[in-house]
Each structure stands twice: as structure tokens, then as C-alpha cells.
């Protein structure tokens, strides 16, 4: 009887130790750190473009737009080109104020609840010249 009790205690102790190790693996895994991406407004070669024109981000990441060449610039998200054609979302993401000074910048942190998908944005005064960018929010 003592042998069975001793084996049972040993198995319980081993199970508890393995459980603690497995649980600590889940606790010690840190979530992916948010990243910051920089987009130049106005290409280095003087063209009216966003550089880069396409980005893939995750919720929590930040996009920083910097006036580089040929101001003024702004960033307006196209209502028809955000997931669900959500006007409130497009408006909240947009920076409609025209920035004039080279080196001026503004940032947007992608909301935690941003729907996965493609978001198209443009520079209001230079949209006709093709100054359009695209952000893909990945899950």
C-alpha cells in the first residue's frame, strides 16, 4: 500500500512540475512589439508620390508621414477604399491639414480594432498627379 501511495505522490508531483513548465511557456511569450513605419511625402527624385507607396501593418503599429519634397501635403483616406466603406473610420484616420514645412510630420497609430484589409489614401492637392498610397492591415 505504501508503494502505491508513494508512486501516486511521485506521479502527481511530476505532473505538477510539467504543468508549471508548460504554463510558463505561454506566460513568457511576449506579444509582437508594435513597429513604426515612415512614409515620405514627395519622392527623393521630386516626384509627387508617397515613398513607400504600399505598406503592410498590424493593429498597434504606427505610420509616420514626413514632408520630404514638393509641399503642401496631407493624407486623406478614401471612404470607398477602406474596409466596409466606413466614413467614420476614414475620417478618423485622415490628416486633412495641409503641411507645408519640409521635415514636418504627423503620425497615425493603427487602431487595435481596425478591420483587416486594404486602406487607400491620397494627398488632396496632388491626387490628380497620382499621389496615392495603400496600407494593408494584416491580422
Structure description:
The chain has 139 residues and is of the alpha+beta class. It has 2 domains: 1-30; 36-137, Immunoglobulin-like, CATH 2.60.40.420. Helix content is 24%, strand content 32%. It is built from 2 helices and 9 strands, in the order αβββββαββββ.
CATH-assigned fold name of the largest domain? Immunoglobulin-like
Please tally the β strands and state the result.
9
CATH class of the largest domain: Mainly Beta
Strand order of the largest sheet: 3-9-8-5-6
CATH architectural group of the largest domain: Sandwich
Average of pLDDT: 86
Count of separate structural domains: 2
Q: Could you tell me how far the N terminus lies from the C terminus, measured between alpha carbons in angstroms?
A: 56 Å
**Structural class estimated from helices and strands:** alpha+beta
* Low-confidence runs: 20-25
CATH superfamily of the largest domain: Cupredoxins -  blue copper proteins
Give a quick set of tags describing it.
2 helices; 4-stranded mixed beta sheet; alpha+beta; 139 residues; 5-stranded mixed beta sheet
Strand-helix topology:
Layout lengths: L1 H27 L7 E6 L8 E2 L2 E4 L4 E6 L5 E5 L9 H7 L1 E5 L5 E5 L7 E6 L9 E6 L2
Parallel strand pairs: 1-4, 3-9
Antiparallel strand pairs: 1-2, 4-7, 5-6, 5-8, 8-9
Amino acid at each position: 500500500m505504501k508503494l502505491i501511495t508513494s508512486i501516486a505522490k511521485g506521479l502527481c508531483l511530476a505532473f505538477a512540475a510539467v504543468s508549471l513548465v508548460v504554463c510558463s511557456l505561454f506566460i513568457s511569450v511576449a506579444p509582437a512589439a508594435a513597429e513604426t513605419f515612415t512614409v515620405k511625402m514627395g519622392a527623393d527624385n521630386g516626384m509627387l508620390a508617397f515613398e513607400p507607396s504600399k505598406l503592410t501593418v498590424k493593429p498597434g503599429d504606427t505610420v509616420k508621414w514626413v514632408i520630404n519634397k514638393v509641399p503642401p501635403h496631407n493624407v486623406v483616406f478614401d471612404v470607398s477604399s477602406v474596409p466596409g466603406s466606413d466614413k467614420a473610420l476614414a475620417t478618423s484616420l485622415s490628416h486633412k491639414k495641409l503641411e507645408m514645412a519640409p521635415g514636418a510630420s504627423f503620425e497615425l497609430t493603427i487602431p487595435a480594432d481596425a478591420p483587416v484589409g486594404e486602406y487607400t489614401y491620397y494627398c488632396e492637392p496632388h491626387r490628380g498627379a497620382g499621389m496615392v498610397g495603400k496600407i494593408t492591415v494584416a491580422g
